[in-house]
Amino acid sequence: MLSFLLNVVWFVLGGLLMGLGWWLAGIIAAITIVGIPWARACFVIGNYSFSPFGKEAVSRQELTGKLDFGTGPLGLIGNIIWFLIAGWWLAIGHLTSALACFISIIGIPFGIQHIKLALIALAPIGMQVVPVRR
């Protein structure tokens, strides 16, 4: 129940805007055809950006224990290309949103979540969103 309430407040106070930013990056990547692997990551992280509480993004390698297309050398190259083209823009958007959230005490958990998403924005290839393990 708490995750639901936090996600509703999050969505209204910045989650919608940043999630749409991720989706826009995904649409642009998909239009280029060669950007489809990045588009997939954008839509996964975009959905996570709409409601991040109660979920976490982890490396698929950490989750499965083995390398795959997105977590091996090709994933590293993909993340470097992503960082140069779009990753830093989304990271700046999340950091700006985090600073706005840190203005009030109530916004601190939201600011922390934006910082987590800013780090993911730098290298989203090979990430998987899963429920928080307790």
UniProtKB/TrEMBL annotation:
It comes from the Bacteria. GO terms for cellular component: plasma membrane. This is YccF domain-containing protein. It comes from Synechococcus lacustris str. Tous. Residues 5-55, 77-126 form the Inner membrane component domain. Keywords: Membrane, Transmembrane, Transmembrane helix. Coiled coil: none annotated. Pfam families: YccF. The chain crosses the membrane at residues 20-46, 67-91, 97-125.
